[in-house]
Write a structure and sequence with these properties.
heterodimer; A: mainly alpha; 2 domains; B: mainly alpha; Four Helix Bundle (Hemerythrin (Met), subunit A); elongated
Chain lengths: ~100, ~240
């Protein structure tokens, strides 16, 4: 089997990165960044999520392209849900 | 022709008792199980996605009241819980790795650590819920009252109905997440029991891998819930 086994060092590195991300997001929330506050918060959360998916969930090393296709498709449709919903609710008060 | 292919499959099945007869190789069987698990997780994304979408709409409409509600949560407990959950994801990843390299005792240790961290998360969550009950921040309560004003607008008091929408979404999202954690602890208790029997090793650890995928998914949901619920407009 062509199973990829990540090193303990890699897992610890990812864990440290996730911890740093958590502390960064709390610190960023305490600073007034205007409209960038939620953007920074979501950017940090998404970076953390990508690290978990790629390394803890082994998607980076999967040789099965179908798995990657399923994940990307799901995220794409989830973003359609959010984008079209907000396009509706965000413009209802337009005159 | 047919006889010979059956013989080949049976031969491999003899080598690996975990290989089911309708898969050609153990690798194909593992890929199928992994894809099935991912498709289940996709349905979970859609399930939580609907609630995230509702959250987004109401946050857009009632931002000030959401900020006031968010500031009533304990940032300390929320941060500790995030750290606890990230730690549990690490122990899950290490448990799977121990199976890959055949360290059977270390699998059990990592799984037990995962369960303990999961229970710690739920304990802290219970404390937060109790605080909300004590502070009368439960939507639908006759005595519901969120003190204060819209951040940076000392003249505008919190709209109590809009604040209740925030807390409805808070309890729906964190409650569903906590339910997933409870199911996860149950699942991992089963996996720990299986691991103590020496079920998992380099040749077969699919339940461990897929249980891990579930746990990491629940962790990712929290990674988004934490900034969205706890960190709205926290700056002075």
């Amino acid at each position: 089997m062509s199973e990829h086994i990540s090193s303990v060092k890699l897992y610890i590195t990812i864990w440290i990165a996730l911890m740093v991300g958590t502390i960064l997001t709390v610190m960023a929330a305490r600073i007034d960044l205007g409209v960038f506050n939620p953007i920074v918060a979501l950017a940090i959360a998404s970076t953390k999520a990508v690290l978990v998916v790629l390394f803890f969930m082994h998607v980076k090393y999967t040789h099965e392209k179908l798995t990657k296709l399923v994940i990307v498709t799901a995220i794409f449709f989830f973003l359609i849900l959010l984008a079209l919903t907000m396009a509706d609710y965000g413009t209802r008060l337009w005159t | 022709m047919h006889t010979s292919s059956t013989a080949t499959v049976n031969h491999e099945a003899h080598d690996n008792p975990a290989l089911l007869h309708y898969f050609a190789t153990a690798e194909q069987q593992k890929d199928a199980a992994s894809l099935g698990m991912w498709i289940f997780l996709i349905t979970e994304i859609m399930f939580f996605g609907g609630m995230f979408c509702a959250y987004l709409v109401y946050r857009y409409w009632y931002f000030g009241d959401f900020a006031a509600g968010s500031s009533s949560l304990s940032l300390t407990l929320g941060t500790i819980n995030t750290i606890v959950l990230i730690g549990s994801s690490l122990t899950v990843a290490l448990a799977v790795r121990c199976a890959q390299v055949g360290k059977k005792k270390a699998i059990v240790v990592n799984l037990i650590l995962t369960i303990l961290l999961g229970l710690a998360f739920l304990g802290i969550k219970a404390k937060e819920y109790k605080d909300k009950f004590d502070e009368h921040h439960i939507p639908g309560q006759a005595s519901f009252f969120l003190e204060g004003h819209i951040p940076r607008h000392p003249d505008i008091p919190v709209n109590q109905r809009h604040a209740q929408i925030y807390f409805s979404l808070y309890f729906a999202l964190t409650g569903m997440h906590a339910l997933h954690m409870i199911i996860g602890v149950g699942l991992f208790s089963f996996l720990t029991w299986k691991a103590t029997q020496g079920t998992f090793g380099p040749g077969y650890y699919t339940p461990l891998e897929n249980g891990g995928l579930y746990w990491h998914f629940v962790d990712i949901v929290w990674i988004y819930l934490f900034p969205l619920l706890y960190l709205i407009d926290r700056h002075p």
